[in-house]
Design brief:
- This protein has helices spanning about 100-110, 140-150, 180, 210-240; strands spanning about 30-35, 45-50, 50-65, 75-85, 125-135, 160-170, 170-175, 190-195, 200-205.
- The protein is α+β, with helices and mostly antiparallel strands.
- The strands form 2 sheets. The protein has a 5-stranded mixed β-sheet with strand order 1-2-3-5-4.
- The longest helix is centred in the last third of the chain and has 31 residues, at about 210-240.
- The protein is globular and about 55 Å long.
- The structure holds cytidine-5'-diphosphate.
- Cytidine-5'-diphosphate binds near residues 135 and 191.
- Cytidine-5'-diphosphate binds near residues 88, 92, 135 and 182.
Length: about 250
């Protein structure tokens, strides 16, 4: 385990088990999801996760262009994660960053695991995610929204993709780190996404180092939280189709 600074004045989890924003260690930030919010897309979703706000739009399956990017064996998932210039405290340069390219890649690969891509050779499924506001955890928020948008598009899926961040701040293992927690001196941030029914891990990245024991303590908390996210995804889809159109909250 990393020995970490003792000059920490910030208490990330207090003696009552409360975090800086009042959450318990295993508690998610408030999450709201709406399915079917962009009529021009084949499927779409809007998601708020704490301060994160994202739109996801799905187009396809459609003929894959340019053709050299097509596969005769499966649909190609083209995932585009994009941050608005105003989505971060400093203006974000609109040019695609290495970070956006990385996030697009890992999210696209994660989402592909849930889709029967082999049924749609020579096609592409384009997933565009626009991050409007962010406060850490935006890749998982994007993937969660994209999965709802994919289901909303009626694309055959073997499961949803749901996730959360897990990690450590101030020596404590916590679920769904916000930006202040991600910036803790001893922070470990692990974006995690699974297929909720099979529990297969489809995205796992790790910023920092933790012990095996810490991992074993925090993973079950993450999995439990992810099942809550999964329920919210299903509820968003049901809410749309219950009203046979775009639902109004
Ligand atoms: O958002 P996520 O946690 O998936 O990715 P990250 O690379 O760990 O970024 C954490 C947070 O840093 C983002 O959610 C943004 O709020 C913030 N950020 C920023 O302020 N400026 C950037 N150019 C990129 C990210």
């Amino acid at each position: 385990m990393m020995a970490k600074k003792t000059e920490d004045k910030i208490v990330y989890v207090d003696s009552k088990g409360k975090r800086l924003d009042g959450r318990k260690v295993e508690e998610l930030r408030p999450i709201k999801i709406r399915a079917g919010v962009i009529p021009s897309a084949d499927g779409s979703a809007y998601l708020e996760w704490g301060q994160n706000k994202v739109f996801a739009a799905v187009h396809g399956p459609r003929p894959c262009l340019p053709k050299h990017t097509a596969s005769p064996y499966k649909a190609v998932i083209k995932f585009d994660y994009k941050m608005a210039t105003f989505s971060v405290p400093d203006r974000k340069n609109p040019r695609p960053s290495r970070r956006e390219i990385e996030i697009s890649k890992v999210c696209g690969e994660a989402l592909e695991k849930a889709i029967f891509v082999e049924r749609f050779p020579n096609t592409e499924i384009v997933v565009i995610v626009a991050v409007i506001d962010s406060d850490a955890g935006s890749r998982i928020a994007s993937l969660t929204a994209a999965s709802v948008a994919m289901a909303d598009a009626g694309i055959p899926m073997r499961d949803m993709v749901a996730g959360t961040g897990i990690g450590r701040a101030g020596g404590k293992m916590i679920v769904d780190l916000n930006k202040a927690e991600e910036d803790a001196p001893d922070a470990v941030d692990i974006p995690l996404a699974i297929l909720p029914n099979s529990k297969e891990i489809v995205l796992l990245q790790m910023d920092g180092i933790m012990t095996k024991k810490e991992w074993e303590d925090v993973y079950p908390l993450g999995e439990k939280a992810i099942m809550q996210v999964y329920e919210l995804q299903k509820n968003a889809l049901k809410a749309k189709y219950a009203k046979n159109g775009v639902e109004e909250k």
